[in-house]
Amino acid sequence: MRVVIAGGHGQIALRLTKLLSADGHEVVGLVRNPDHEADIAAAGGKAAVLDLEQADADAVADVLAQADVAIFAAGAGPGSGDDRKDTVDRGAAALFADGSVQAGVRRHIQVSSMGADRADTLTDDESFTIYLRAKKAAEDDLRSRSRDLDWTVLRPGALTNDPGTGNILIADQTGRGSISRDDVALTLAGLCTATASIGRVLELITGETPVTEALANL
């Protein structure tokens, strides 16, 4: 299986690259900074240098050629300005989906955020509200592509760097909670082939069910 991950140098993406490459899959991490190539190689993947804020769909499709799965795990980050929350969390996500359609990669997974559907009521932090709105706009764009993409949106809860437990709660609605980046990566690896997740927006927090079982029960 060939998997292309946008935001390939992110904490979740590097964990996911290690998991997939250890299972014998080919992983390509899409990054805009060539200095990050070594970290992706150390995780077992290959880097493709491409700035999704500057590229066009043709360039993205070239990277996605012959991929089996496309995963959007990029984000502007908490220290970014409001403009980049739109150009990355919404715009780059839409461009990556455009590339998937053009390259004929049907399986498309997009990492969003818990609360994206409640951006205007969840917080008084204007910057975080803008971030959630961008994530929701990216979700809405992806949901409009069901004719061309077998998509899944994953909304993790509050992210931690705690060691993963391998046990999760994944559902259309889970209630608020947290989840380790280890377990998000493990879940994404399983979602690559979890057909019951296609066409669904799923929330994810720490739970009591092993990932494999939880995905089988969707």
UniProtKB/TrEMBL annotation:
Give all residue intervals belonging to the NAD(P)-binding domain. 7-191
What's a Pfam family this protein contains? NAD_binding_10
Q: Tell me the protein's name.
A: SDR family oxidoreductase
Which InterPro entries did the record assign? NAD(P)-bd_dom, NAD(P)-bd_dom_sf
Superkingdom field = Bacteria
Checking Gene3D superfamilies in the record gives: NAD(P)-binding Rossmann-like Domain (3.40.50.720)
